[in-house]
Design a protein that fits this description.
- By secondary structure, the protein is mainly β.
- It has one domain.
- It is 0% helix and 42% strand.
- The strands form 3 sheets. Strands 1-4-7-10-13-16 form a 6-stranded parallel sheet, with no helix packed on it. It has a 6-stranded parallel sheet with strand order 2-5-8-11-14-17, with no helix packed on it. A 6-stranded parallel sheet has the order 3-6-9-12-15-18, with no helix packed on it.
C-alpha cells in the first residue's frame, strides 16, 4: 500500500587496514577499501578519490581531523568535518564535533552531532574535505 524505500546497509566483509585500540597515530592518512579504527588518529583520514571505501570507527575509536569516505559506520568520536559520498551510519555511541556532508544518512538514538548536516544531491560532486600534501623532493 505504501511505498517504502528499502533500507540500505553496508556489509562488513573484511577490512584491509586496522588501527587497533592500543595504537595512536599522528599524521594524515589516505586509505582505500576498508579501514577499521579502534584506536586514535590525530590527523586527517581521507579515502583515495574514486574508490568505494568503507571507514568503520568503533566505540573506543577517535579521529581528530577531517574525514572523508565513500561509506562510513561511525560509533566513536570524530572531532572535525566529515564527508561521506554514499551512506553514513551514525550508531548510538557516535559523537561528531564538526559539519557533516552526506548523501544517505542513518542515525540511531543516542548519536550526537555538534555541527551542521548537509545532504548532497545526486548530481552534486563530492569534494574532498582535505587534500593531503604531496611530498616534494628537492635536489641540492
Amino acid at each position: 500500500m505504501f511505498n517504502k524505500k528499502k533500507a540500505v546497509r553496508v556489509s562488513i566483509d573484511q577490512f584491509s587496514s586496522l588501527i587497533s585500540g592500543n595504537v595512536s597515530l599522528v599524521g594524515d592518512m589516505e586509505f582505500e577499501e576498508g579501514l577499521k579504527v579502534s584506536g586514535t588518529v590525530k590527523g586527517n583520514v581521507c579515502h583515495k578519490p574514486g574508490t568505494h571505501s568503507l571507514l568503520a570507527l568503533s566505540t573506543d575509536g577517535r579521529i581528530e581531523g577531517d574525514v572523508s569516505s565513500y561509506d562510513a559506520l561511525i560509533d566513536g568520536t570524530v572531532v572535525g568535518d566529515l564527508v561521506v559520498e554514499h551512506l553514513l551510519e551514525l550508531h548510538s555511541n557516535a559523537r561528531v564535533q564538526g559539519n557533516i556532508r552526506y548523501r544517505q544518512l542513518s542515525m540511531e538514538n543516542g548519536a550526537v552531532v555538534d555541527g551542521t548536516l548537509h545532504r548532497m544531491g545526486d548530481e552534486e560532486e563530492t569534494a574532498q574535505v582535505v587534500e593531503l600534501p604531496r611530498l616534494q623532493v628537492r635536489e641540492g
